[in-house]
Design a protein that fits this description.
273 residues, TIM Barrel, 8-stranded parallel β-sheet, two-stranded antiparallel ribbon, 41% helix, oxidoreductase, Aldo/ket_reductase_CS, Aldo/keto reductase, NAD(P)_OxRdtase_dom_sf, NADP_OxRdtase_dom
């Protein structure tokens, strides 16, 4: 598993397992399957209501706590609510610390929320802090009014919304670009895409594996989600091949700058993606 180094020296696996919209009753089983197949980064959030089950999976596995990387996200309610919410998340999960805590959405009181995350970071409750769904303007505002620079920005990124302007901005700012919804609206459109099928046949890989390889090969942390054991296993089987320059260009040409419905309007500004 390849890792990237955050701006505070902490290493983050480049491929992880997402748990968005996985029901709490299904979460432990799915995370245990992910652990078995080699995933070491697990992404959850207060909003997902499955932090407890992620913690249960860690304890039920044969893995040491220091061998897994656990991300959660705050509900972004300001200083006091964020501080209390993070302590509640630690209690629910049964963990002594998280590896990464993100502000889930920009909501207008982000500086206060960030102050709570800075305190948690300095207190050892999390090894790293970052943001999610922040555009370049919002990110710069946070940097200018904080003592700790965000280490990650998790934003919608997939074949049809590749986010190259944001990627360049984040790279220059020393912030790791993390993709959520890396498969876009679903697998069927990708499976049937003729470019993906042709590239997949060239490497003996499935179209979905080509997409995930494309993202991680561009140093984008990627967290595909599935409850299907076959898909969980296939999604991590992408580290035995490299896309060549021509294939990378073909995949880049498929960018439609097309977000999934519901993505924050401010993230659709031309200068930000």
């Amino acid at each position: 598993m390849k890792s990237l180094t955050l701006n505070n020296g902490v290493k983050i696996p480049i491929l992880g397992f997402g748990t968005y919209e996985i029901l709490p009753v299904e979460t432990k089983k799915a995370v245990l399957a992910a652990f078995k197949d080699g995933y070491r980064l697990i992404d959850t959030a207060q909003y997902y209501n499955n932090e407890r089950e992620v913690g249960d999976a860690i304890r039920e596995s044969d893995l040491k706590r220091e061998d897994v990387f656990i991300t959660t996200k705050t509900m972004t309610d300001g200083y006091y609510e964020t501080k209390a919410g993070l302590d509640e998340s630690l209690a629910k999960s049964g963990l002594e610390y998280f590896d990464l805590v993100l502000i889930h959405w920009p909501m207008g009181h982000d500086r206060d929320t960030w102050c709570a995350l800075e305190e948690a970071y300095k207190a050892g409750k999390t090894r790293a802090i970052g943001i999610s769904n922040f555009n370049s303007r919002q990110t710069m505002d946070l940097i200018k009014h904080s003592s700790v620079k965000p280490m990650v920005d998790q934003i919608e990124t997939h074949l049809f919304l590749q986010q190259w302007k944001m990627h360049e901005f984040l790279e220059k700012a020393g912030i790791v670009h993390e993709s959520y919804s890396p498969l876009g609206n679903g697998q069927q459109a990708l499976i049937n895409n003729p470019v993906l099928r042709a590239i997949g046949e060239k490497y003996g890989k499935r179209p979905i594996q080509v997409v995930l390889r494309f993202l991680v090969q561009n140093d984008i942390v990627t967290i595909p989600r599935s409850t299907n054991p076959t898909h969980i296993k296939a999604n991590i089987d992408i580290f035995d091949f490299n896309l060549d320059k021509d294939d990378l260009e073909k995949l880049r040409s498929l960018d439609k700058r097309q977000p999934i419905d519901g993505w924050p309007a401010e993230m659709r500004e031309d200068e930000d993606y």
